[in-house]
Amino acid sequence: MKTIEDLVKDDLHGKRVLVRSDLNVPLDADRNISDDGRLRASVPTITALTQAGASVIVVAHLGRPKGAPEEKFSLQPVVARFSELLGVDVSFATDTVGEDAQRVVGALKDGEVALLENLRFNPGETSKVDAERGAFADQLAAFADAFVSDGFGVVHRKQASVYDVATRLPHYAGGLVGAEVEVLKRLTREPARPYAVVLGGAKVADKLAVIENLMKTADRLLIGGGMAYTFLAAKGYEVGKSLLDAEKIETCARYLEQAQAHGVEIILPVDTVVAPDFSDAGPIQVVDGDAIPADQMGLDIGPKSGELFASKIVDCKTVFWNGPMGAFEMSPFAAGTHSVAQALVEATAHGALTVVGGGDSAAAVRQLGFSDDQFGHISTGGGASLEFLEGKDLPGIDILST
Ligand code: ADP
Ligand code: MG
Fold first, then answer.
1. Tens digit of pLDDT for each residue in 94-135?
2. Is the peptide bond between 194 and the residue preceding it cis, with omega within 30 degrees of 0?
3. Helix 382-389 to helix 204-217 angle, to the nearest 10 degrees?
């Protein structure tokens, strides 16, 4: 796999480089950026290219538009902050490969940066039909002399700007993709032990699949957040109105058995913070993990669980964490996530490799006042890192080795 270091060895004056970045930042109701982590992570690769003399065309997506322009998914709101972080004025094209993109790209000079509108405004980007993706990739590739893949958050997707464009241009792994893959390799190849994996968040079905594979490598699996209740249900407990994937109860029961057979510890919450519904309007109470009232919803792991989880993390040499322990956006349900974050910080200070993956998990640690350098690595790609740990091929990485 060629990397950006190979590319910037040459003088790039007069060359145009297409960079796939991940600029999919969370926006609030007024379309202000609420966490600019992904923008900051995208800067070093682009800067390395402009410093080598290249003009850079950045392509990215935001949210999930359905193959047509939709104002609420425009990338326009990131331009000002992106320009500020890059230290250059980014010129913005109001379409992806249309007239405005051609105008903006045509006007680019050495060392300048352009950003094209949301790739997913074009149906070719995510099409399942090879020829449709290919046609869009042809148009993107026509803008540039080389392609740099740096959008780690999308490398598990076989999409035009991730996969197909690499078959049409000399291609290189960007610095961010390179760094992310290095960290993931350290998690899968002989991780230092004990190795704990902490899973939470809301995408229960998506995240269950990784557990089967993790049981082969991890020593401890800590399960909190919305993930926990399907496991508690598998143990036969009432979970009330909590997030539950009823179809996966049997799968969870099987995992609990397999874990015993593998000698892997699965740690579930022993207490839970509950409320009548998904709100902090109250009344809020703490109940035992096996005693959630039928009319209540679990919205955070309880204080005893916070301590238990922390004690299973601090002595580890490797920790991977994906998914908040509760609905941390509401402060009464943020304590469990805080305990886990604090335990990772302590493990990091003792020399452990700690990795935080997942958009909301990264946003949570920042919202709770932690800084990025208190952790070993904050991944920009939750889905991509989970699929890697699940043992799946990542098309956007594999294609870079061809
Ligand atoms: P990530 O983006 O880190 O991969 P997810 O997207 O899977 O994480 O989940 C994050 C969301 O999970 C947060 O918005 C949080 O409010 C929600 N969440 C966590 N615990 C619960 C819970 N017990 N019930 C409902 N939602 C929860
Ligand atoms: Mg999320």
1. 999 999 999 999 999 999 999 999 999 999 999 999 999 999
2. yes
3. 40
Widest CA span in the chain: 68
Which residue owns the Cα nearest ligand 1 atom 9?
A: 201
Distance 60 CA to ligand 2 centre (A): 18
Q: Is the dihedral angle over the CA atoms 138, 139, 143, 147 positive or is it negative?
A: negative
8-state DSSP, 273: E
Ligand nearest to the CA of 336: 1
Written as six digits, the tokens of 142 are: 């026509």
**Torsion angle (degrees, nearest 10) of CA 355, 358, 361, 367:** 100
- Alpha carbon distance 384, 152 (integer Å): 7
Ligand 1 atom closest to Cα of 322? 3
Structure tokens at 59: 């392509």
Tokens matching residue 301: 């792991």
Ligand 1 atom with the smallest distance to the CA of 330 is: 16
Q: Give the residue from 125, 105, 123, 126 showing the smallest Cα distance to 115.
A: 105
In total, the chain counts a number of residues equal to: 402
* pLDDT tens, position by position, 371-401: 999 999 998 888 899 899 888 889 999 999 9
- Calculate how far, in angstroms, residue 326's C-alpha sits from the geometric centre of ligand 1: 6
Active-site residues: which are they? 38, 203, 359, 383
pLDDT of 357-368, one tens digit each? 888 898 899 899
Which residues' Cβ are closer than 6 Å to ligand 1? Answer: 200-203, 225-226, 243, 298-299, 322-324, 326-327, 329, 358-361, 382
Ligand nearest to the CA of 273: 1
